[in-house]
DNA sequence: TCTAAAAACAGGAATGGTTACTGATCGTCG
DNA sequence: CGACGATCAGTAACCATTCCTGTTTTTAGA
C-alpha cells in the first residue's frame, strides 16, 4: 500500500514515520483543496488535541524534503501543501483565498531554457498564478 | 524626461510625486540588483534620516500600483523591487540571496493557455526561480 | 494670498506566519 | 533493563509587513 512507499522514502533520508507525521498525511488527504499548515493543524488536533503547531510545521517540512508532499507559496498568504507531487499549476483567488488546479497546462521545457540561460544551478522553478474565482468575479 | 512620465502615471491614479516617492525611485536606480524594502529604506535614509520604513513600503506599493516599478516575491525572503517593468525572469540564490536576471527566456503565451484552462479571471502569473549562484555552487 | 480639506508622513505599536528553543517522551538497539 | 538519538509539546522569539495616531505638507477654492 501507499504507506510502505512513504515509510521507505522517509527511511532513506534517516527519518521515521511517526504517528504525528502519519496524522499530517491523513489530514492532507481529508482536507479539501490545498490546506495551510494551520488547516492541517486544526484537523490533526481533532483526533489528537496535544499536537503542537510546530510539530505540524516540522512534519510538513520533512515530508516535503523526502518528496511525499509538495508546497506552494503565494505572497500575502500562508504556504499551501498538497499530496499531488506531479508538476501542475494552481491558481489562488486573491479575494477569497481558494486554490484550484489548472489542468492541462504544461510549461514545456521552460526549466531547461532557464538552465541554459543562467550561470546558476537551478533548483526550483514554479509558476505563481493569481486571479478571481468565478464566485468572486460575480460580485465585483 | 522620465520624471514627467512617472508624474503623469501617478496623477492618473490620483497620486502625487512627493519627495519621498522620488527618493524611493532614486534609491531603486542606485541600488544594485533587486533591493528589498529595507535596502531601499537604508539608501533613502542616507539623504533624509527622517523617513519612516512604513513610508517606503507605502511608496513602493503606490509606485507598483501605477506600473512604474515591479515586485517579486520568493518565500523565505523579503519582497524585491525592480525598476524594470518589462516581463522577464529573475533567479534568486537560495544560499546568499543574490537575485539576477535571466535573459532571453520568454514564457510563450503561458498566460493565455492558463486563462483558457481555468474559470478564474487570471490577474497575475509569474515564475519564481531559485538556484545556487556560481559563487555559492563552488563551496558546496 | 488665506484657509479648509485631503493627502502624505513619521514614529511606533501590532500582526501573523513561521522558526527556534527547552525540557520531556518515545522508540530502538544492545 | 539502560542509554542514546530522534521526536515531540509548549512556548517564546523572529521578522517582514501593515496598521494606527497625531502631525506636517500639499492642494484647491474663495
Task: Summarize this structure briefly.
Two copies of one chain form a homodimer. Chain A has 140 residues and is an alpha+beta fold.
Keywords:
homodimer, 140 residues, alpha+beta, Arc Repressor Mutant, subunit A, Dna Ligase, domain 1, 2 domains, three-stranded mixed sheet, two-stranded antiparallel sheet, 6 helices, globular, DNA-binding
In words, what does this structure look like?
The structure is a homodimer of 140-residue chains. Chain A is 42% helix and 19% strand. The first copy, chain A, has six helices and five strands, in the order ααααββββαβα. In chain A, the strands form two sheets. Chain A has a three-stranded mixed beta sheet. In chain A, strands 1-2 form a two-stranded antiparallel sheet. Chain A has two domains: 2-82, Arc Repressor Mutant, subunit A; 89-138, 2-Layer Sandwich (Dna Ligase, domain 1). In chain A, a hairpin with a 5-residue loop joins β3 and β4. Chain A is globular. Chain A has helices at residues 2-12, 19-30, 37-47, 53-65, 110-116, 134-138, and strands spanning 70-72, 80-82, 89-93, 99-102, 121-132. The first copy, chain A, starts with a helix and ends with a helix. Chain A has 140 residues and is an alpha+beta fold. The mean pLDDT of chain A is 94. The A-B interface holds A 73, 75, 79, 89, 91, 93-94, 100, 102-105, 107-108, 110, 113-114, 117-134, 137 and B 73, 75, 79, 89, 91, 93-94, 100, 102-105, 107-108, 110, 113-114, 117-134, 137. The first copy, chain A, binds a DNA duplex (30 and 30 nucleotides) through α4.
Amino acid at each position: 500500500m501507499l504507506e510502505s512507499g512513504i515509510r521507505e522514502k522517509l527511511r532513506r533520508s534517516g527519518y521515521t514515520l511517526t504517528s504525528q507525521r502519519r496524522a499530517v498525511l491523513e489530514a492532507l488527504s481529508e482536507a479539501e483543496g490545498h490546506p495551510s499548515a494551520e488547516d492541517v493543524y486544526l484537523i490533526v488536533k481533532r483526533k489528537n488535541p496535544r499536537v503542537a503547531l510546530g510539530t505540524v510545521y516540522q512534519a510538513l517540512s520533512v515530508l516535503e524534503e523526502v518528496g511525499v508532499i509538495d508546497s506552494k507559496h503565494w505572497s500575502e498568504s500562508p504556504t499551501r501543501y498538497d499530496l499531488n507531487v506531479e508538476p501542475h499549476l494552481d491558481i489562488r483567488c486573491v479575494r477569497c483565498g481558494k486554490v484550484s488546479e489548472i489542468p492541462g497546462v504544461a510549461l514545456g521545457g521552460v526549466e531547461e531554457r532557464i538552465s541554459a540561460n543562467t550561470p546558476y544551478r537551478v533548483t526550483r522553478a514554479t509558476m505563481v498564478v493569481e486571479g478571481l474565482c468565478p464566485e468572486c468575479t460575480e460580485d465585483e
